[in-house]
Automatic annotation (TrEMBL):
Coiled coil region boundaries: 107-141
Record carries keyword Membrane: no
Species assigned in the record: Limulus polyphemus (Atlantic horseshoe crab)
SUPFAM superfamilies: Stathmin
Lineage: Eukaryota, Metazoa, Ecdysozoa, Arthropoda, Chelicerata
Region called Disordered, residue ranges: 1-54
Protein name, entry field: Uncharacterized protein KIAA1211 homolog
């Protein structure tokens, strides 16, 4: 018995019930997980012998030993990792020390440079002060009434109007 159905697009198709066609090519759903487990349990329980059980126990013991060895190897590898980390920490400390030494050297050279500049500025200021003092002393000398005539001629010759003397 094949009931006919119609899709919304006007296409006809036939539905076949799985109970009516036992050897159909349609895909079947897998059995439920619990049913699978029960089948596996039933198979294992009935077919195991005393020797097979002992063999399984030996394999289990070997697996435990292998796992223990893996744990030990991981511990030793962790120790190696710790050693590598310690070496890395030491290298970073050395780099920091070198960096600090370089920074100290640059700070010292900068301070020396600034001190040199300050001493040059002081020397320049002292020279300027001496020039100012000389000017003042020349002005004092020129303010004497006898030399006033010389100063007037000087201003008249080299003054603002630049006349020929």
């Amino acid at each position: 018995m094949r009931p006919e159905s119609r899709a919304s697009g006007g296409i006809k198709f036939e539905l076949i019930a799985s109970s009516q066609a036992p050897y159909s090519k349609a895909r079947r759903l897998p059995p439920l997980p619990l049913q699978r487990r029960e089948k596996q349990r039933n198979r294992k329980r009935s077919s195991l012998t005393h020797e097979q059980i002992l063999e399984k126990l030996k394999r289990a013991e070997q697996r435990r030993k292998q796992q223990e060895e893996e744990r030990l190897s991981k511990i030793t590898s962790k120790e190696r990792i710790d050693e590598v980390l310690n070496v890395g920490v030491q290298l970073t400390k050395e780099k920091r020390e070198k960096h600090n030494e370089k920074m100290d050297a640059t700070i010292k050279s900068r301070e020396k440079h600034l001190q040199d500049l300050q001493s040059k500025l002081r020397a320049q200021e002292e020279r300027a002060e001496r020039v100012r003092e000389r000017k003042k002393s020349l002005n004092r000398v020129a303010t004497i009434p006898e030399d006033q005539e010389v100063v007037d001629r000087f201003h008249w010759c080299f003054g603002e109007e630049e006349k020929a003397c």
